[in-house]
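Complex 310.
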Amino acid sequence: MRALLVDRSAPGGLRLGTAPDPEPASHQALVRVTATSLNYGEVAFALDSVPDGTVLGWDAAGVVERAAADGSGPAVGTPVVTLMPAGAWAELRAVDTDVLGVAPAGADPGALATVPVAGATALRALHRLGPLLGRTVLVTGATGGVGRYTVQLARAAGAHVVASTGSPAENGDLLRRLGAHQVVATPKEAAGPVDGVVDLVGGPQLVEAYEILGEGGTLVAAGHSAGRGEDFPFGALFGDRSRHDRSVVTFFLPACTGLGRDLGWLAHRVAAGELDPGITWRGSWDGAAEAVDALLGGRLHGKAVLTVGS
Ligand SMILES: NC(=O)c1ccc[n+]([C@@H]2O[C@H](COP(=O)([O-])OP(=O)(O)OC[C@H]3O[C@@H](n4cnc5c(N)ncnc54)[C@H](OP(=O)(O)O)[C@@H]3O)[C@@H](O)[C@H]2O)c1
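Predicted structure with NAP bound:
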């Protein structure tokens, strides 16, 4: 099969080449991949940590080519969205059927390919906050792939949504269109205490976000885009009448179980136009180097989608 192979001598660290077809285990379906989307973590970290020739890639949309031998998962020909630790940047991938979501027929594969990491992280991070109806939720790094889904899902769940972005003048309209009630440049600009935070930036923004977390509130530390430490000043962790029982929780999507159902649900919302996949770069996998460069250069502010195959 053809695949994007890690090659540190090539632009973007990737070149189109060939790799052996995957051999699915009995609990895996073989999927013909039609589109993939890039994620910051795999491009910034995974690309540098594997040998040349590796086939990476977390997110893929495609069609079941061969159903799982153990009878689990969908039948041949079913459109699916898939999430695995590697193997999406190839014409064929073997996928555990419990991280495979069934998608509606006829949906745009590029839009579906944004769902696995970005959509599922947003959904599961919000689940961790508990009921959102009538609550205030702050989302940092709101213009990114995960942030856009988080804003939309929090709004759909009935929250008052505060979106934090480094560029409110440029991105305020976009974020309000996605469902934000308030757009701020930094968490401390948010009015009043918030009940929950999905933090995708870390560093000083996490510390600021914690400072405005109200009693019983939860901050999910899901992302670390700032690449900086969290330095809590003395007193920041004190409780008082309005700041009793606040939590910071860590989050790791691959440790979440039962994702297949969530992937299918998200795929249907995207296909119905109820969720905007936030695609800001789209092209053939021949253009992967350009997309990688834009992602690492912080110029994407959304999802890069690559068409896979001919
Ligand atoms: N824990 C998990 O399982 C998990 C799963 C998925 C993703 N993640 C992490 O979540 C984060 C977001 O992922 P993503 O795919 O949405 O990334 P992304 O598309 O690159 O978006 C990140 C956003 O963060 C903001 N940002 C970027 N660099 C920044 C900096 N130096 N200082 C402050 N803000 C910065 C930008 O938003 P503004 O321009 O709006 O400020 C950017 O749009 C990443 O750290 C990723 O690795 C973790």
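The chain has a mean pLDDT of 96.
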